Amino acid sequence: MILSRLVLLAVLFYALLLVGLGSLRSELLALALPLGVYWLASLWLAPHRLKLSARRTLDVTHLTAGGTVEVQLELENQGSAIDALWLRDALPPGLEVTAGQPGRLATLRPGETLSLVYSARVARGVYAYDNVDVHVSDDFGLATSVLRLPAEGAISVLPQAVRLRGIPLRPYYTLGYHGAIPARRGGAGVAFYGVRDYQPGDALRQVNWRLGARHPDVLYSNEFQVDAAADVGLLLDARRDRYLSFGSDSLFEAAVQAAASLALSILGEGNRVGLLAFGHILSWTLPGYGKLQAERIFQALASLHLGNMQNEIPEPLVTHFFRPGSQVVAISPLTRWDVMSLLRLHARRYNVLVVSPDPASFEYQHLAPGTPRELALRIARLERQQLIRPLRRAGILTLDWDVAQPLDQAVSVLQRNAGATLPLRGGGS
Description:
- By secondary structure, the protein is α/β, with parallel strands linked by helices.
- About 30% of the residues lie in helices and about 35% in strands.
- The chain has a 6-stranded mixed sheet, with helices on both faces. A 5-stranded mixed sheet has the order 2-9-8-4-6.
- The chain is elongated.
């Protein structure tokens, strides 16, 4: 594609030439002569056969948020010599160059290869490279061509996750194989569950001799609580108007990291886990097991964006994907309507655990120190206590999480208070 500068020069040259010949004015012909030489030289020096191929290489295609990826772009000249070539890679939003340069100006002889290498730090997301634009021109910079070459590549940046210990999961129903969740039935286990009549085949160590001493005619056996696996549904709020952000620091990223950590930890204990995210779109990952399911959930979290398509928790979808009696873990800053939805799920015999990133504490960290900030925090916390109180009164375990505190510490506080009617805050003061 020849750009307008060369075309305008040609138009100017012919205009001066024609006017000079028509008016027989030698000064116009003399003025047109250098322009004509300049124009013809640009046409002569311009590359006559452009044939370039691009190839992109990424050192990693899957990494965690905050990691670094090295991008190498190679451009091979399969045509005529190029006097001036400008190669610049188009960076997807979210990439921050840390080393090298994504652009280069060079000459390229036939058969030569131009290499461009740079490193970039990436945030959570899915990044796709499609094409690269190459500007080719002569030494005068007049005959310029722009080529768009395919150079595809994709990077999946997964959210950071930490292993959590002692997540207080208490579903009404468990699955029929071993896990880490105390089941509501007796069997082979460690913790004492109850006493039943002795049955032939019971081991002698199961016999409750003290109780048998009070009832000489009957023998009793101890039962122990079974540790089993369960169905766990993660419910992630991705509505834009529920989350605050200050520059690159976003409360939503803390919620995504919490969902990733919960998925990793719960799957690691042998449970079946599914994910339902609502906000920009309805994104669901059907329940599954093991490392492959963790990869599916992490990929879904990597591509998740904020939006406002849903106004409240989609209860029909929750009941469709997760059967009654299973465990539902909701990650949301919460509103009054969300509290009502969670109470209705609790009434349908879902065991609900709420992990709620606290917007007030998050905003407090980004405000200027002073008395107004302290007063605003006190008012916001009083409002939040009133918001969460109905959940705790209904017996729903709720973690009011100050995201300045690591999630594993907050969960340990929640575990210690799991037996209380009103669990303490898992966040800061």
